[in-house]
Design goal:
The chain has 303 residues and is of the alpha+beta class. It is built from six helices and 18 strands. β15 and β16 form a beta hairpin.
């Protein structure tokens, strides 16, 4: 008997399936007015570090959180943060390197109507930023690689630490004038205060759209009294007559009790001209030497 072996059942073919790939993450998108973004860049750009060997500071930090768009720049001597409200509920961060900022600025300036909307599109990993706008029917787009924002200074913590400190009377603060020029584009008027001599100077606009810090010069041994003494002796005006010294910044009473004040003018000889201050009507002016001779002695009085 011949045994017939049935052919083995064929195994089902395997599907050629590779590693499971996560779905591609969509870029973050925020829409704002071109005028607002241009204003923010102009406010913070003067505070960006110009040191190209420090890419974490040689850039502008953009962030969207809690329906606010922030732009931040710092070189650790000054810090500036500008903001504008946005309807987007997304959250993202990106760093635009200094080399790409002129192109962003040029795109915003090119918009004839700065009320046109600008779209910021940021890759999910924060490493690509695209800015686009449509002006007069013409579409303009600028795309640039962005730096990873992980190493950027925690500007929120820095500001909170300063703002949470109760301001104290500060007798003297030394500021570097080179940095004062940076605040020119922030606002026509800035409110400022300082919590302590070694604490940063806080500068804020009245609309709540800009906040900045400037570090003072530390370990300055100069005292306020030293500075004042260098000026007081030259600001006070004196006159010398017959060996006596008269303080022209104080009213002088003649022997009848009438008060005379320095008019700010002198005779060609240098004799101060005094104005009668105790009567109204037509001004009466006489030389100090004449008053001393005719109505003296002249006695200095306190205002």
């Amino acid at each position: 008997m011949t045994r017939t072996t049935a052919p083995a059942a064929a195994h089902p073919s395997h599907l050629a399936v590779g590693p499971c790939q996560p779905p591609a993450q969509q870029p973050h998108t925020t829409v704002t007015q071109g005028a607002h973004l241009l204003r923010m860049l102009d406010q913070v750009l003067p505070h960006m570090s110009t040191e190209t060997d420090d890419p974490m500071l040689n850039c502008i930090h953009l962030e969207v959180r809690d329906q606010w768009l922030f732009a931040t720049a710092t070189d650790r001597y000054t810090m500036a943060v500008a903001r504008t409200h946005t309807a987007d509920t997304d959250s993202w961060q990106a760093l635009i390197a200094a080399a790409h900022i002129p192109a962003v600025h040029e795109l915003l300036i090119a918009a004839k109507d700065k009320s046109d909307l600008v779209t910021l599109s940021v890759a999910a990993d924060g490493r690509q930023v695209t800015i686009s706008s449509s002006v007069m029917g013409n579409s303009m787009t600028m795309s640039a690689p962005a730096l990873a924002p992980n190493g950027y200074p925690d500007w929120r913590r820095v500001l909170c630490k300063v703002l949470d400190t109760t301001p104290q009377p500060t007798r003297l603060t030394t500021l570097r004038t080179e940095y004062l020029a940076r605040w020119g584009d922030a606002s026509p008027y800035l409110r400022c205060w300082q919590s302590a001599p070694d604490s940063p100077l806080v500068l804020m606009d009245g609309a709540g759209r800009f906040l900045g810090l400037q570090s003072p010069r530390r370990s300055d041994a100069t005292s306020l009294d030293d500075l004042l003494s260098k000026w007081r002796s030259t600001l006070t005006r004196f006159a010398y007559t017959n060996g006596a010294r008269y303080n022209l910044d104080l009213p002088m009473a003649d022997r009848h009790g009438d008060l005379w004040e320095y008019s700010g003018r002198d005779q060609p000889s240098g004799d101060p001209l005094m104005r009668l201050a105790s009567v109204g009507g037509e001004e009466l002016v006489e030389p100090l030497s004449y008053l001393i001779t005719q109505y003296g002695p002249m006695r200095e009085t306190v205002r």
